[in-house]
Amino acid sequence: MEAANLLIREAKRRDEHEHDYIDSVTSIMQCLSPVFDRNPKYAFVAKTLIEPERSIQFRVAWIDDVGVNRLNRGFRMQYSSSLGPYAGSLHLGSTLTHNVAHALAFDTVFSNAVTGFNLGAASGGSDFDPLDKSEAELQRFCQSYSTELAKYIGPEVDIPFVGMGCGKEEMGYIYGQYKRIKPTGNFMSNSDMLQAPGFTVVHFANRMLQDRGDSLQGKRVMITGSGRTARSVAKKCLEYGAIPITMTDTSGHIYEPDGIPEGKLAILNKIKEERGALLGRYIISSTTAEFNHPENLFDIPCDICIPCGAMKELDKAEINALADNGCKFVIEGGQSCVTPSARKVLKKRGLLYGPHTMTMTGPAITYSLGSGATDDDLKREVDRIYNEVKMTATEFNSHRDLYAGANIAGFLRVAKNMMLHGAV
């Protein structure tokens, strides 16, 4: 543990004000402590790894619908290319900062590596909020953002994926402008990847239950968020026979006591595909749904919770409430939805945890398999990754700790390549 603590102190010395990044480094270095104890040379590799290869920040100027000049910040954190070209999500939202991009990129190093494919890690986006913008404003912003981003990306350099607040329309505008600047083949996220994050999460959930002689059939699933990933999680849950019962957004939460069937999910999809639309509109279409009742979402009884919303939305209080109401599994459908302190409560209360390092590998898998990949291909890769993570956790005396297993498996792939490359 001494080596891990030294690395954590080094990260704090360099970036003491970046709390999300420090939380990520602390959690992951603690997972890697058995690796350092077994082979101390890996601690020196980890010291290099906590510093990103490139950190890019730039101004994004655009004009709104009334002719006013607007400014936002653009980010691209190109963290590691030891396994291949940088690859990672673009996120759009007012909460995106250098600190958040730094944390997300660091996490992506391990989630991309654990797939077994030759992809590096990156993350980025902008503090631009697309929800309250017109289509014309969105296009002007994306074109301005892409004009600068184009200097740093390409099929052999950096591959952007869809992310929070950056879906089909946003990525389409970004890629359209990129093609004007650098004519090239299609290398950015395509339509095949839009549902991959959600489907991957549910495949992992089913695999975790199978490993314990159970299945998703009949399980009540609490889903937070209502974006593309949350809705694709609900869709795949229905295919497995599970019962999605909730969704959330900034206005509150909806609760369907008998579940959200395909017909009602189609209504939700139609509502949420309209930019800026809120879940409250769904109540008009459903006589059985409850809006913001009970007041605390996590007081609703469920078997499985799949958080697909904001970073750190599940803390100790939420985990305790879930456990008190019968929840047995928490499986992340977004990056870092569970706080480090909440992970300790998960262990204490006996809830099984599917970490984002493992579950949020959908875009990397789908990109690596190519445009012809099917859901069966995705499921096969999920089985392979799950087995490797489980074996790694057992090898390093962390039986059933999938968070430790995923981080160790990803780190070992990256570290071995970094040692071959030398001091670069």
Automatic annotation (TrEMBL):
GO terms for cellular component: cytosol. The keyword Oxidoreductase applies. Residues 191-422 form the Glutamate/phenylalanine/leucine/valine/L-tryptophan dehydrogenase C-terminal domain. GO terms for molecular function: glutamate dehydrogenase (NADP+) activity. SMART domains: ELFV_dehydrog. Pfam families: ELFV_dehydrog, ELFV_dehydrog_N. Keywords: Oxidoreductase. One of its GO terms (biological process) is glutamate biosynthetic process. It comes from the Eukaryota. Belongs to the Glu/Leu/Phe/Val dehydrogenases family. PANTHER family: NADP-SPECIFIC GLUTAMATE DEHYDROGENASE 1-RELATED (PTHR43571). This is Aminoacid dehydrogenase-like protein. It comes from Fragilariopsis cylindrus CCMP1102. The lineage of its organism: Eukaryota, Sar, Stramenopiles, Ochrophyta, Bacillariophyta.
